[in-house]
Automatic annotation (TrEMBL):
<dbReference type="GO" id="GO:0019262">
    <property type="term" value="P:N-acetylneuraminate catabolic process"/>
</dbReference>
<keyword id="KW-0021">Allosteric enzyme</keyword>
<feature type="site" description="Part of the allosteric site">
    <location>
        <position position="153"/>
    </location>
</feature>
<comment type="pathway">
    <text>Amino-sugar metabolism; N-acetylneuraminate degradation; D-fructose 6-phosphate from N-acetylneuraminate: step 5/5.</text>
</comment>
<dbReference type="InterPro" id="IPR018321">
    <property type="entry name" value="Glucosamine6P_isomerase_CS"/>
</dbReference>
<dbReference type="InterPro" id="IPR004547">
    <property type="entry name" value="Glucosamine6P_isomerase"/>
</dbReference>
<dbReference type="GO" id="GO:0006046">
    <property type="term" value="P:N-acetylglucosamine catabolic process"/>
</dbReference>
<feature type="site" description="Part of the allosteric site">
    <location>
        <position position="156"/>
    </location>
</feature>
<dbReference type="GO" id="GO:0004342">
    <property type="term" value="F:glucosamine-6-phosphate deaminase activity"/>
</dbReference>
<dbReference type="InterPro" id="IPR037171">
    <property type="entry name" value="NagB/RpiA_transferase-like"/>
</dbReference>
<keyword id="KW-0119">Carbohydrate metabolism</keyword>
<feature type="active site" description="For ring-opening step">
    <location>
        <position position="143"/>
    </location>
</feature>
<feature type="active site" description="For ring-opening step">
    <location>
        <position position="136"/>
    </location>
</feature>
<keyword id="KW-0378">Hydrolase</keyword>
<dbReference type="Pfam" id="PF01182">
    <property type="entry name" value="Glucosamine_iso"/>
</dbReference>
<comment type="similarity">
    <text>Belongs to the glucosamine/galactosamine-6-phosphate isomerase family. NagB subfamily.</text>
</comment>
<feature type="active site" description="Proton acceptor; for ring-opening step">
    <location>
        <position position="138"/>
    </location>
</feature>
């Protein structure tokens, strides 16, 4: 697993945006897997800046959603479809038809999960998947003890995750849905490049367990250790509990400038 320690969230955003721009130069129609929440926002902002300056071309890019709440009405501002449209698709000037996502309001949610898993494969697979990490080590909405071979499916959110997400619902946990559709860990691991971002001291323990601990379903993000091209981008606070932080800094410093992440 490649670990890059950056000074702050904005530096991480620029680093990942540059990686996406390079990917799109090699493969203009790349399928980009996006995550929601506050952590990846600097990536989307930096990528939008590259598009506006002419340093990135997203005109043929496609976007894939990582997860979705179950039961929110169509058009709800905190549905992840609405969030991705607002924070990624619209700023980048993409056509909404380039957007793949699960239907959290489907009458048959299980069928919607299976349909989305097939849609990702039919689209050729995700080229680069952005991931955040929960304070309990979850990725997507794969909570602790999720199967490392799991596919896109329905999950019940833990109380801690609902507490963490209440800030998006006027700090009212009663408004946070209990269930979600999420890409499974097995589905996520099929992406060609995984990029996990983490900022803040509250993520430090989860980052340390995921990077330096054993691969275990109790820490879902530890499954990234099994991937041939996984990059973890963390700020100094999120890296504060890494025993090998000095090694990671030295390894990154010695990497050729042209290689990137």
């Amino acid at each position: 697993m490649e670990v890059v320690i950056v000074p702050d969230a904005q530096a991480g955003g620029r680093l990942v945006a540059d990686a996406i721009a390079r990917l799109l130069r090699r493969k203009p129609e790349a399928l980009l897997g996006v995550a929601t929440g506050s952590t990846p926002l600097p990536v989307y902002q930096a990528l939008t800046g590259l598009v506006r300056s002419g340093d990135a071309d997203v005109s043929r890019a496609r976007i894939a959603q990582l997860d979705e709440y179950v039961g929110l009405p169509a058009g709800h501002p905190e549905s992840y479809r609405a969030v991705v449209l607002r924070e990624v698709v619209e700023p980048l000037g993409l056509d909404p038809s380039a957007f793949l996502g699960p239907d959290g309001s489907a009458a048959d949610v299980q069928a919607a999960c299976e349909e989305y898993d097939r849609a990702l494969k039919d689209a050729g697979g995700v080229d680069l998947q952005l991931l955040g990490i929960g304070t309990d080590g979850h990725i997507g909405f794969n909570e602790p003890c999720s199967s490392l071979a799991s596919r896109t499916r329905i999950k019940t959110l833990t109380e801690q995750t609902r507490v963490d997400n209440a800030r998006f619902f006027d700090d009212d946990i009663a408004q946070v849905p209990h269930h979600v559709i999420t890409q499974g860990i097995g589905t996520i691991l099929e992406a060609r490049h995984l990029v996990l971002l983490a900022t803040g001291e509250n993520k430090a323990e989860a980052v340390a367990q995921s990077v330096e601990g054993p691969v275990a379903s109790l820490v879902p993000a530890s499954a990234l250790q099994l991937h041939p091209h996984a990059t973890v981008v963390v700020d100094e606070a999120a890296a504060s509990k890494l025993k090998l932080a000095g090694y990671f800094r030295a390894t990154w410093a010695a990497k050729p400038d042209w290689q990137g992440i």
